[in-house]
Amino acid sequence: MRTDLVVALDIGGTKIAGALVDAGGRIVVRAQRATPAREDGETVMGAVAAVVAELAGSPLWASASAVGIGSAGPVDASTGTVSPVNVPGWRDFPLVERVHRATGGLPVTLVGDGVAMTAAEHWQGAARGHDNALCLVVSTGVGGGLVLDGRVHPGPTGNAGHIGHMSVDLDGESCACGGRGCVEQIASGPNIARRALGNGWRPGPDGDASAAAVAAAARAGDPVAVASFARAAQALAAGIAATATLVEIDIAVIGGGVAGAGPVLFDPLRRSLRSYATLSFVQNLTVVPALTGTDAGLLGAAAAATPRTGIPGAVSTSP
């Protein structure tokens, strides 16, 4: 019987994905549910349990020896709890304990989704071979993680590098986190779409008002859509430059659904970055798309639970 599998859970505001992943980073079984993000905490946990149950139905389940979770944040890896900004029903929710029980007692390791994506990109993606990097997830929210001195650096609670709640507009709008002018409040997909709609952009006949639809309009030259992405790019550039100045990263890797906009996002981002990253030791900072795609969260969660590729400082709990 094989013994090289881990259970990986990627929990966000839109979907809850699960997989059995082998030591080489290959996903051998998948499961997924929509996140009932506006429901109560037990309903959200029910969706997680359904994903676990589907994976447990595989004959390969018996080969899984541990669980890794990458969750929307903030998380507290030291206590095994999560309080995602975009899942209001979870506040100090004991996710590690609940998943430990749902998986029949497997040891569970928790990290933030940004740290998970960072681990995936450093293991198999665009940050591979870089000793100092910032990796970002730009999607329903904006998360991030750091690689410092060649190792993923989650911080004491698993939130280090959480660029989404760095303030880049001191007089900006209030954010769901309680702050003001956060990167997420400007650059996340829903906020890109909200800003475009507020400034006069209108969806096509299909009624699609998502950030992806705004990106399509921007590619077609719609000035309002172009401006909405430019504003998001400026916020990301300000956050990336501030991070680079603080810890001397040499590459920023951007994944998540919004990164799928391609040049509509990356061209103004690189232009804005030249205006913010001006000191000599950050002028050579590069920005590239992530390579691990929609599997980044799962691969990073697997890395957190795998001793050989694990994340230093991540807390594994077996209640």
Please give the CATH class of the largest domain. Alpha Beta
Question: Quick one: biggest sheet?
Answer: 6 strands, mixed
CATH superfamily of the largest domain: ATPase, nucleotide binding domain
Please estimate the helix content: 25-40%
Instruction: Note the run of SSEs as H and E.
Output: EEEHEEEHEHEEEHHHHEHEHE
Here the CATH topology of the largest domain equals: Nucleotidyltransferase, domain 5
Q: Enumerate how many helices there are, as a single number.
A: 9
Overall average residue pLDDT: 93
Radius of gyration: 19 Å
In terms of per-residue confidence, which ranges show pLDDT below 50 for 5 or more consecutive residues?
A: none
Tally of structural domains: 2
Distance between the termini: 27 Å
Query: What portion of the residues fall into strands of 2 or more residues?
Result: 15-25%
Give, in spatial order, the strands making up the sheet with the most strands: 3-2-1-4-7-13
Shape designation: globular
Family: Belongs to the ROK (NagC/XylR) family.
Pfam families: ROK (PF00480)
Protein name: ROK family protein
InterPro entries: ATPase_NBD, ROK, ROK_cs
Task: Describe it.
- The chain has 319 residues and is α/β, with parallel strands linked by helices.
- The protein folds into two domains: 5-115 and 295-317, Nucleotidyltransferase, domain 5, CATH 3.30.420.40; 128-290, Nucleotidyltransferase, domain 5, CATH 3.30.420.
- 34% of the residues lie in helices and 21% in strands.
- A six-stranded mixed β-sheet has the order 3-2-1-4-7-13, with helices on both faces. Strands 10-9-8-11-12 form a five-stranded mixed β-sheet, sandwiched between helices.
- InterPro entries: ATPase_NBD (IPR043129), ROK (IPR000600), ROK_cs (IPR049874).
- It comes from Streptomyces roseicoloratus.
- Belongs to the ROK (NagC/XylR) family.
- It holds the Pfam family ROK.
- This is ROK family protein.
